[in-house]
TrEMBL record:
<dbReference type="GO" id="GO:0140581">
    <property type="term" value="F:P-type monovalent copper transporter activity"/>
</dbReference>
<dbReference type="GO" id="GO:0005886">
    <property type="term" value="C:plasma membrane"/>
</dbReference>
<dbReference type="InterPro" id="IPR044492">
    <property type="entry name" value="P_typ_ATPase_HD_dom"/>
</dbReference>
<keyword id="KW-0187">Copper transport</keyword>
<feature type="domain" description="HMA">
    <location>
        <begin position="1"/>
        <end position="56"/>
    </location>
</feature>
<dbReference type="InterPro" id="IPR027256">
    <property type="entry name" value="P-typ_ATPase_IB"/>
</dbReference>
<dbReference type="InterPro" id="IPR001757">
    <property type="entry name" value="P_typ_ATPase"/>
</dbReference>
<keyword id="KW-0406">Ion transport</keyword>
<feature type="transmembrane region" description="Helical">
    <location>
        <begin position="332"/>
        <end position="359"/>
    </location>
</feature>
<keyword id="KW-0472">Membrane</keyword>
<keyword id="KW-0067">ATP-binding</keyword>
<feature type="transmembrane region" description="Helical">
    <location>
        <begin position="150"/>
        <end position="169"/>
    </location>
</feature>
<keyword id="KW-1133">Transmembrane helix</keyword>
<dbReference type="InterPro" id="IPR023298">
    <property type="entry name" value="ATPase_P-typ_TM_dom_sf"/>
</dbReference>
<dbReference type="GO" id="GO:0012505">
    <property type="term" value="C:endomembrane system"/>
</dbReference>
<feature type="transmembrane region" description="Helical">
    <location>
        <begin position="636"/>
        <end position="657"/>
    </location>
</feature>
<dbReference type="GO" id="GO:0016463">
    <property type="term" value="F:P-type zinc transporter activity"/>
</dbReference>
Length: 687
């Protein structure tokens, strides 16, 4: 698939087949994904062959190298170019017309057979692709005996096609090169304890792999022994090395530094985080961004309109105003040359793909061109507190005993309940209990109360452990407790209370630490004109205290999942483009509703990579500002490219109608425009 008009041709042909359910084009990748009924593959291939193209199956597994385009020989182009030039000179020096014609026809034959063949197939399928247009234009020029002109146009066009194909190959490779590949071999421990080099694809989950200093990591896993620092830039975009010790995750494609270690494989080669990233970027390219859809639609109308215009230009002035036939036919032929929207159509995907690749390189995984293109509109960013602004690893800070009923150890009851939950607040309490050696009691009937806390039965008594909302609803709250809570919360701490349903027993407060990156990130967002709002299940006072520390515009506390959802919806109703960052399950509905849902720390979390619109591979909130800036740049380049492509066409339209445009100038301009937009789009990769 060379030209976008070829895509239209395939779409028309395959789309009409009842066996075919879905078509997904990636012109950049020259890849077509066909969803079809079982057994229809050969029919699909035959249909494509009838269009003059050859379909090649992509191997489902392994690192398929993009097969090198068969390099076309250069000599026909050189010879054709020479012939065209000679024809021009012969015409100029007044040699007989039949001689000029002969040399010109030779040039057309040398360079144009392929174009004629493709053009003829397209015409038969009722498609006006660039090949069809050029075939008509050149044939027309020959018929009105513009010999050297016809030869020149054909040669220039053939060379332009060649250059465009080559520059697209370059674009593809540039993008592929960004996604550093993991090594294809790993040193695996055998049952007898020896170490053997094996292909990464054959390593199974649970195998132990050894990594030496300076070695790249081939598979995802968890460190079992040894220590080192690893450069994870390939995944997270951060080149600051990260310390790794037993229990820490390591990712395929990252680079070990000075230490050596062993790790247990957690995913096979095809399912590593890196493989998922590549997969996501590739499928994001297939999905069309809005501009691309617009451009495609425009192109669909543009070409036939210009074609009809050309017919009108050829017929109307001579018929109605007795103008010179040959003059106006020539003008019509120039119009045919400018009727191809190639530069316009190719400009958008190149730009979007470059943007996606640039983002991936910085550890930002964008799941579709839409988000890259629309990200510049981001007006409000909602952030979750726990785990997003803070580390999400609070520690116990205060313990307040209320009543000491005989024989009841409220601290170990609270610890035992907390140990059953994986909520960060509970986790902090359980952790503190473990450190001070508190024995755990047996809990029955345990249940989590989302947005409130937990409940469970110990020694025949039902206990509740949770936030103010919970104890207030239970009716054991008192002004004294509220005062105590208020004091702790004003310090940014989160307090929960244990009750047996009759009276409060013990109060435990935990404090989380704010990520270093949060404050800078929030400032960067404000500089981009984005309003920030914190949505948290934690109480409003703690929320306000934390928000104030990091400089967030607005804090909304005591948010149940549906409240978070409603908050997002309110912004959407106000017509504002809203993003949301979060991690927990309590954020899921809001994340899904937001115009752009960001997930943090996506490396190692498959669900985050799969469900988010934009996945940030590590925990650095600064990536959101980076994403917005990249989106703005992408948009600027898109607008530049579209303006450029259309502008050049408009200039030539004007030149032609006023009698200054020539055919070969139009070909030249079209080729120039294509090269400029591709180059401009590729600039983004280096962002
Ligand atoms: N399992 C639990 N153990 C202890 N406390 C809990 C538990 N679940 C909820 N809580 C209490 O309810 C509050 C709200 O919880 P929720 O899970 O909705 O939000 P969060 O995780 O604290 O904050 P964020 O919305 O910022 O992620 C918590 O701050 C905590 O005080
Ligand atoms: Cu209360």
């Amino acid at each position: 698939m060379d030209c976008p008009t070829e895509e239209a041709m395939i779409r028309k042909k395959l789309g009409a087949m009842s066996e075919v359910q879905e078509l997904e084009f990636s012109l950049m990748q020259r890849m077509l994904t066909v969803t079809h009924r079982t057994g229809a593959l050969s029919a699909v291939q035959t249909a494509i062959r009838e269009l003059g193209m050859d379909a090649e199956l992509v191997e489902p597994e392994g690192n398929e190298e993009p097969h090198e385009e068969a390099t076309k020989p250069w000599w026909p182009y050189t010879a054709g170019g020479l012939a065209a030039l000679i024809a021009e000179i012969m015409q100029w020096s007044g040699l007989p017309e039949w001689m000029v014609a002969l040399v010109a026809l030779l040039a057309v034959a040398l360079c144009g057979l392929d174009t004629y063949r493709k053009g003829w197939i397209a015409l038969r399928h009722g498609n006006l692709n660039i090949n069809a247009l050029m075939s008509i234009a050149v044939t027309g020029a020959l018929l009105i005996r513009q010999w050297p002109e016809a030869a020149m146009v054909m040669v220039l066009f053939a060379i332009a096609e060649l250059i465009e194909a080559k520059s697209l190959v370059r674009a593809r490779n540039a993008i592929r090169g960004l996604v550093q590949l993991a090594p294809d071999h790993a040193t695996v421990r055998q049952p007898d304890g020896s170490w053997v080099d094996r292909p990464a694809a054959s390593v199974r989950i649970g195998d132990v792999v050894r990594i030496k200093p300076g070695q790249s990591i081939a598979l995802d896993g968890t460190v079992t022994s040894g220590r080192s620092t690893i450069n994870q830039a390939a995944i997270t975009g951060e080149s600051m090395p990260v310390e790794k010790g037993p229990g820490d995750p390591v990712f395929a494609g990252t680079l070990n530094q000075a230490g050596s270690f062993e790790y247990a494989v957690t995913a096979d080669a095809g399912h590593s985080t890196l493989a998922r990233i590549i997969e996501a970027v590739e499928s994001a390219q297939g999905a069309r961004a809005p501009t691309q859809r617009f451009v495609d639609q425009f192109a669909r109308i543009y070409t036939p309109v210009v074609f009809l215009g050309a017919v009108a230009v050829a017929l109307i002035p001579p018929l109605l105003f007795a103008a010179n036939w040959l003059d106006w036919i020539y003008k019509a032929l120039v119009l045919l040359v400018i009727a191809c929207p190639c530069a316009l159509v190719i400009s958008t995907p190149v730009t979007i793909v470059s943007g996606l690749a640039a983002a991936a390189r910085q550890g930002i995984l964008i799941k579709g061109g839409v988000y890259l293109e629309q990200g510049h509109r981001l007006a409000v960013l909602a952030l979750d507190k726990t785990g997003t602004i803070t580390h999400g690893k609070p520690a116990l800070t205060d313990t307040v005993w209320f009543s000491a009923a005989e024989g009841i150890d409220s601290l170990s009851i609270a610890t035992s309940l907390a140990a059953r939950s994986d909520h960060p607040v509970s986790y902090a309490i359980a952790q503190a209990g473990r450190e001070s050696g508190i024995g755990l009691l047996e809990v029955t009937g345990f249940a989590a109360l989302p947005g409130r806390g937990v409940k469970g039965t110990i020694g025949g008594i039902d206990y509740l452990l949770g936030n103010h909302r919970l104890i207030h609803e239970t009716g054991v709250c008192s002004p004294a407790i509220e005062a105590q809570l208020a004091e702790l919360e004003a310090q940014g701490k989160t307090a929960i209370v244990l009750t047996d349903g009759k009276e409060p027993l013990i109060l435990l407060a935990v404090a989380d630490t704010i990520r270093d990156s949060s404050r800078v990130a929030i400032r960067a967002l404000h500089e981009l004109g984005i309003e920030t709002v914190m949505l948290t299940g934690d109480n409003s006072r703690t929320a306000a205290a934390i928000a104030q520390q990091v400089g967030i515009d607005k804090a909304m506390g005591d948010q149940l999942p549906e409240d978070k959802l409603q908050a997002i919806e309110r912004y959407i109703c106000d017509g504002r483009y809203v993003g949301m960052v979060g991690d927990g399950i309590n954020d899921a509905p809001a994340l899904a509703r937001a115009d752009i849902g960001f997930a943090m720390g996506a490396a190692g979390s498959d669900t985050a990579i799969e469900t988010a619109d934009v996945a940030l591979m590590d925990d650095d909130l600064n990536k959101i500002a980076r994403f917005v800036r990249l989106s703005r740049k992408t948009r600027a380049v898109l607008i530049q490219n579209i303006t450029l492509a259309l502008g050049i066409k408009a200039i030539f339209l004007a030149l032609t109608l006023t009698g200054y445009g020539t055919m070969w100038m139009a070909v030249f301009a079209d080729m120039g425009a294509s090269l400029i937009v591709v180059g401009n789009g590729l600039r983004l990769v280096r962002q």
